[in-house]
Amino acid sequence: MLTLALNLNIAAYRQPLALLSLLSIALLPTVSSHANSYLIVPDNSNVRFEIDHFKTSTNSGGFYNLTGQVQYDPSAEIGAVSMVIPINSINTGNVAFDNVLKSADFFDVDNYPLATFTSTQWHFANDKSELPVTQVDGNLTMHGQTHPLTLRATKFNCYFSFIAKGQVCGGDFTTTIDRRKWNIDKYTLLGISENVVLKVQIEAAKQ
Fold it and tell me: pLDDT value at position 164?
């Protein structure tokens, strides 16, 4: 099913967000039927990145309008998440640089318009004074490659949202990846780091 996400052409990527939500449902792991279902809120969810630039400064940017599904039951310590990341949404604050990153030298959005993350295991805190969710393990599919990824939680909480008129859960997560694993290795020998810090912000509304 992950291959399906990667083989979608750019025309499919331009369809409404509902199409990406359907894809994320297909990717969602099967968990207990007692877990609550949540829909990722695109306006409040993103993946930001930071990468060292010739040891002089840090280049940064982000991917936006994420879609996906979350299933969560803290009492049973059950969790699952699948999300779709539209690569064409990349924004560094510099249009020319965005176009370079979209090119075949880097993300190659014409052939790989989407990335996906699907969890394989959630880790819950033993101590109630800690974050309820401490870590999420899963697989990141990007640029035609799939590799395991561990997201460490720095924030996680659920609350009643008067705007959404229901329960909302979300948090901040971070990890560092070696971009060479996903065959995005341009200029690593010239001084741009292979290591990329990812900061993931997810907010999901109960269905």
Answer: 85
Strand intervals (E) in 74-188: 78-86, 114-124, 133-142, 145-161, 166-178
133-142 vs 114-124, strand pairing mode: antiparallel
* Alpha helix ranges (H) inside 84-159: 95-102
pTM for the whole thing?
0.84
- pLDDT tens by residue, 87-97: 999 999 999 99
Domains along the sequence of the chain with CATH: 2-79+88-206 (2.40.128.110)
**Cα separations (Å) of 118 from 38, 70, 163, 166?**
15, 10, 28, 25
171 closest CA partner among 132, 115, 197? 132
Positions in the chain short of pLDDT 70: 1-33
